[in-house]
């Protein structure tokens, strides 16, 4: 175990940068998993090395001790920080003070996609993206493709909202969605209020490429034109629309119902 | 129209307090609706008076002008603030600078509840509560009862996430849920991973009292014991659970599917 005690330590400075700056994370190809649950999920699913960061108080916490042992068993470096230095690093108030510094996993889109896939066109809110990833993984969907305008999937906020779902998925980022849609071996399906076909009437008992868009403006017109199938979640006329993560969950689990039936 | 130009104006000070403090809103029984969409939704659904607050730049914006006219037609007071004073009031970055100061609507729970109702036991995240309200209204559910530990439904953050759904619902707040469950004329239904009954197999083509809980710890043990029906959303064994707002949406729309069938 390594102890860092000075704010001026270059490794500590690097950690602070990674914790606070999306640009620094992108440049370094690294991200931070905050809290016991995400650290455990990482160890469960990923064998790559990682650096564990723990506060001095954390070292004595019953939920952290086995995690530190797990890191050491894997040959991962463990860095212990004074509480004040750890607190300046963490974005979580009153969280358990343990984190992992990891290389951001990167996936290349396979040439032919045959299984259900989710395409996200400009989803902005980290909580929404995390919730969509969690629902996709819960519905046993394996592939999520984030278009260029979508928030960074491996940011600490999205990771927290995803609650470990990231590690059950193949997440592809920063892609031009219009280039992907040509490669799909299945119908591109978008939700729309301008169609009569409900999700209950549509044939979803097959692989589908689900397309969801920006919280305010929805899917871009260009991508919408490429949709093979538009479906609607039958809603009260009093309400304009649902939250994008709620809509996605309803669609994924209607598909699951049809697949299980 | 009234112009306020000084930060020391007592009415401006009151607005700032209401904008920034949940306690001040609770004490005054008032809240703030931020942005064009919520103001419009209020005018569409609620006839009570409200005070409109607009920035000087806002007064010249094409989406604000008709809203100001609408407020004046209703005899509502309109207060114009210099941009800097308005900005200090708003929690929305780059939003359209118009807001309504309203009396927080209060509903008393009717003695016998016969229609589907949603009970929320300690939902903490404003985005989740807003999303649940939006999904409930979209599924034509009319009643949402927020237990004592649930975040304030009429807070600006929940209002923004609700996107106007508040005005299509009867929202009851600050209640002891265990006292409500005795009055219900329908099964109390909770989601659980410890049951074999899926939402698809359960009979949901009838009024149901849906029970959802805290993001981390779920529904309290005491309330869980009162559930007449526990159902599960069939999920991948790799995933522990879904986001509470996503789960609620899936349940509401499976019920809607069964009701429409």
Keywords:
Alpha/beta knot, 5-stranded mixed beta sheet, 261 residues, homodimer, 60s Ribosomal Protein L30, Chain: A, transferase (chains A, B), elongated, alpha/beta
Describe, in plain words, how this protein is organized in 3D.
2 copies of one chain form a homodimer. Chain A is an alpha/beta fold and 261 residues long. Chain A has 2 domains: 2-103, 60s Ribosomal Protein L30, Chain: A, CATH 3.30.1330; 117-260, 3-Layer(aba) Sandwich (Alpha/beta knot), CATH 3.40.1280.10. Helices cover 35% and strands 19% of the residues of chain A. In chain A, the strands form 2 sheets. Chain A has a 6-stranded parallel beta sheet. Chain A binds chain B through residues 125, 127, 130-131, 134-135, 137-140, 161, 163-165, 168, 200, 233-236, 238-243, 245-250, 253-254, 256-257, 260-261, and chain B through 125, 127, 130-131, 134-135, 137-140, 161, 163-165, 168, 200, 233-236, 238-243, 245-250, 253-254, 256-257, 260-261.
Chain-wise SSE layout:
The structure is a homodimer of 261-residue chains.
Chain A: E1 2-3, H1 10-20, H2 22-28, E2 30-34, H3 36-45, E3 51-55, H4 65-73, E4 78-81, H5 83-89, E5 98-103, E6 117-121, H6 126-138, E7 143-147, H7 156-162, E8 170-175, H8 177-181, E9 188-191, E10 209-213, H9 221-226, E11 229-231, H10 244-260
Parallel strand pairs in A: 1-4, 3-4, 6-7, 6-10, 7-8, 9-10, 9-11
Antiparallel strand pairs in A: 2-5, 3-5
Helix pairs in contact in A: 1-2, 6-7, 6-10
Domain tRNA/rRNA methyltransferase SpoU type (chains A, B): 116-252
Protein name (chains A, B): RNA methyltransferase
GO biological process, one term (chains A, B): RNA processing
